[in-house]
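seq as requested:
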Amino acid sequence: MLYQEALLEIINGDNETVKEAFLVHGKVKVLVLEAITLSVWRQNIFPCLCNIQISKEKVFAVFTVLYHEVTAFGLLESLAFYSDCVESLQDTAVELLDYCVASILQIINRDVPKVLHEKLDELTVQEELQHHESNIVHNLAVKSISVIRYLAQAFEHLPLNITSRFYNNHDVPMLLCKVIEMAPWCTTGTDGKQYQFVDGNWRKRQSTDEAINKSEGQAWLSLRQVLLDQRLLQYYEFNDYRRQQLCKLIRHLHDDMLDQLSPLAELKHFLCQLSVANLPTPQARPLILELVAEYRDKLLRKFANKWEKLTMKQADMLRDLDINQIRSIAKGLSETYRTLDLVEPEPAKCGNCGEPAASRCSRCKSEWYCGRECQVKMWNKHKSICALISDQSVSQ
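struct tokens:
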């Protein structure tokens, strides 16, 4: 709920209640550590859970843990929009930077997930969980690209070693360059159609869509911020390889893109200069004590050789879950996320084909469709969650 409220405040320009509450109580750092904790669970416990027999109706409970990381990091992304929230992180910004870089590297090292639609019901429980995890990893990486930009905008308010780690340890310019060349915001569905990743979901690409979608736009704006920052030449050396890779991006900065995102004209000018001129080499920098991200390592050391035991304990908890408890969770989440209709100004999209939709499921009210044909195609996938939500409504 806080995540949605923070989004509404940014979009509507309302009183910054959520932001102020997190700042006053010093809880922005807590969100960073929460996201890291959940990522450790996802990377160490979740794969083990996928190898254990879990009944179909219990999948939803595992999914809520996975999605909690998206929600926590989404709230953090919304707060990072404000420079004073980023400034409040101080040394914890190192933990956030490492988390973002690790998230982006995950999609660089993976294939872009396929859009399955009605074929989702043909998957086994383990395959379905892995499919959800793949989409969540993708969502986290796209959000991380935005957070990278917010961190770069706040360099002057953060410890000096953050900037050094940004350019030297992680080479963020090359990281963003690789992401843009990969274009992980586009994929092909099992139906052979082109889809684009927008607001955490895959939508079928329409002929009326803009030349650049939101996810791609964030990547370009992040690269612009990183390359045009005044501290760049103090920390970053443009060797032949870096120059070559960055200059390849010039071909993507065509007129349609510049019309849609005019700030990229400055980026194109910089890249054109880079292609023909030698930029000065960074001078020797003063000694800076390097901060190390410790929280993740502490968790890994604390639970080393205990992952299997923890997995079995959580598997037992899943088996003991009553179906009414799962229905209650599903109902609560459904009611909470209906407020997302207020956040997204664009019309509802069909859950099957991604086209604009005018009607929703009459039973659970949680899924939209453009017509009867798509509703029938989606029924095998939708029926389990529909039953959970609607049965809980009846019981109440």
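Residues 222 and 313 are 42 Å apart (CA to CA).
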